[in-house]
Fold this protein.
Amino acid sequence: LRYSVYGDPLLAKRSENTVVSYFLIGYGIVSSFVKDEHIIQGINGISGEIGGLERIDGETIHNRCSIPELIKRANAISKCENLNDLLKLYDTNQEVHKLVLESAKYLAYDIDCITNALGSNNVIMFGETINFGNEYKDVIQMQLNKSSSFMRNVEFVDSKTYRFSGMVKKLQDHIIRCIM
């Protein structure tokens, strides 16, 4: 599967760095990476199901950052049964707001580790978490650039065509549709 993407996935603008990292954060957490016109295929989650990677603290990204886990944690604070409840609580409840932004920091730490290893300065994010808006994105952007030796650009892409969870092939198909 070959195609050309260097930077902006929608306009396919050329950038100096040829590694672009895509992350779908929603009901599942998956990733895909494009380097030199190829989708990088990995094993054990490096390119694919990163949500299940276990960290030193015993947590996984999925357990801290996915929509189902955020709903479960928010429900312990106030009644929260679905994404709409979570979004309302994010806007009205300081504790839930803090919970969501802390999950963004947690997510950014792992994205930093992965993209630093690849030398990727373009991070494209899809998924339900983009509904948390600019503050969520800014937390990720700030965290990524806080501890890194190079600056990263984070873009949120609002798309309704990716409706799936944990399916790497569909994320890759979506990337291709965006740049064609």
Observations:
- Residues 54 and 104 are 17 Å apart (CA to CA).
- The first helix runs from residue 61 to 65.
- Confidence is low (pLDDT under 50) at residues 1-15, 162-167.
- The two ends are 13 Å apart (CA to CA).
